Amino acid sequence: MRVLGIETSCDETGVALYDTSQGLLAHTLHSQVALHAEYGGVVPELASRDHIRRVLPLIRGTLAQAGQTLQDVEAIAYTEGPGLAGALLVGAAIGRSLAFALGIPAVGVHHLEGHLLSPLLARPSPRFPFVALLVSGGHTQLMGVTGVGAYALLGETLDDAAGEAFDKTAQLLGLGYPGGPALSALAAHGRRTRFKLPRPLLKSAELNFSFSGLKTAVLMLVQAQQTLDDQTRADIACAFQEAIVEVLVAKALAAASQTGFSRLVVAGGVGANGRLREQLSGEARRRGIEVFYPPLEFCTDNGAMIAFAGAARLQDTDVGEPGFTVRPRWELSELPPSHARLFEGEAPGETGR
Ligand code: KG4
Ligand code: ZN
């Protein structure tokens, strides 16, 4: 089945064409970073208007890239939530309308399920079960994944998300929006030993995170500096990154050990962080745990993960009402289990290790 995926939940318009037997055929993306940069964050109304401008040209571009036409599309998947209501409505409206006009099914996808399954777009891809570390701008969760829709929450942030902590720290250091990539680039010039920042909840047995204290510690460190020269900013960025990465790595490995799962999957924008990848892969290797990352371009928001998760959900008979709705707030735990089979010879809800 050939599925057109449409992502418009926040500040990226992503479109992709995924074929269940041939894999990803094409994908395109338009980032609104430049549009929101002068405001220091996403302006919802501007985001919706830009999605409206971009989505049809991107659909045309994706189909052209794949050498396909609309008539070749067999189903449409769009992000139903969570995200910005107006932005979600653009993708839902275009997805449902196109499906109606073409007489094909449409399915609303949970954005985080998209992120969670995105490492399966890479080769080799992880088999179930695995622990997923989901680290995005709005979420930081550890999940035990035994199949599509079979997600057990193992731990989550009690306050700020990891991406949010990167963005806020970047702001304190005078870096633009979004801060994560800029902060990690600055940290590359920093010295690891100059400052030491707290590692919240590192020593506790629970799998929850807390990053707001770390953000406050950065604020105090910044305020304590007489001059905030380039080297000092880089040293602070580096200290922050070391602290947050150490906590993420420790909790992810603790989750693997608590569940007994030998595979670990990292998804969401912060999963693009080079230092996190380096530290996690090293520590995991020492413990015999295999780590899987989505390709870099599919860490942050994209249409491919939506097409992929949609293709899985479309294997279930009931894909929802013909009308459409969006769910700006939508917990992953509210998703029904799925009968989808993603691997050859796989039993539904496969749990074999
Ligand atoms: O998954 P995503 O694209 O959107 C959400 O669903 O939130 O994640 C965006 C977040 C932002 O907070 C951004 O600063 C962070 O991911 N991010 C990074 C990196 N690239 C993106 N954080 C740290 N290092 C990176 N290289
Ligand atoms: Zn996302």
Textual characterization of the structure:
With 353 residues, the protein is α/β, with parallel strands linked by helices. The protein folds into 2 domains: 2-117 and 298-334, 2-Layer Sandwich (Nucleotidyltransferase, domain 5); 128-293, 2-Layer Sandwich (Nucleotidyltransferase, domain 5). 40% of the residues lie in helices and 18% in strands. It contains 10 helices and 10 strands. The strands form 2 sheets. It has a 5-stranded mixed sheet with strand order 3-2-1-4-5, with helices on both faces. Helix 3 links the parallel strand 4 and strand 5 (106-110). The radius of gyration is 20 Å and the shape is globular. The two termini are 28 Å apart. Residues 10, 136-138, 163, 166-167, 178-181, 184, 268-270, 272-273, 300-301 line the site of 5'-O-[(R)-(carboxyoxy)(hydroxy)phosphoryl]adenosine.
